[in-house]
Amino acid sequence: MNNTKHRFISDFTPVENGIILSIKGELDASSSLMAINIMESMVLSGAGNLILDCSQLSYISSAGIGVILSVYHLSLEKHTILTLFGLQPQIKELFEALGIDNLLRITSTKEEAMIPTAVASRLA
After folding, report:
1. What share of the chain is helix, strand, coil (3-state, %, to 5)?
2. 102: helix, strand or coil
3. Pick from 69, 58, 74, 66: which is nearest to 22 by CA?
4. CB 54: neighbour CB atoms within 10 A?
5. What residue ranges in 7-74 does DSSP mark as E strands?
6. pTM
7. In degrees, to the nearest 5, what angle opens at C-alpha 56 toward C-alphas 111 and 81?
8. Distance between CA 3 and CA 50 in Å, rounded?
9. CA-CA distance, 84 to 106, in Å (whole number)?
10. Which in 3, 62, 63, 109 has the greatest CB count within 10 A?
């Protein structure tokens, strides 16, 4: 059985005043250490915006949610704007059920995620 579709993979793209980090596969206990190291290093690099492309994230466990929340708290300390976009329906529903959608900036599209938060709040 080919297990590559379930493996956690990340790839980043520098953008104006930030980084888009594409996360793919499963964010669970087995990938959480690698994921938190990658995400924290991006926040600590001084990126003004860390945008997580979750469009190919197929699964997130409680350990994965812990990674996201830990990075969220670090981003607050370092004045980095953390935005997630492209959540799969089951992950979006989980975030809503846990109330995480009230903490994090979550958008549907990359284009929305790229809009600075001050501008986005005026458009809402």
Report:
1. 45, 30, 25
2. helix
3. 58
4. 23
5. 9-15, 18-27, 49-60
6. 0.88
7. 45
8. 28
9. 5
10. 63
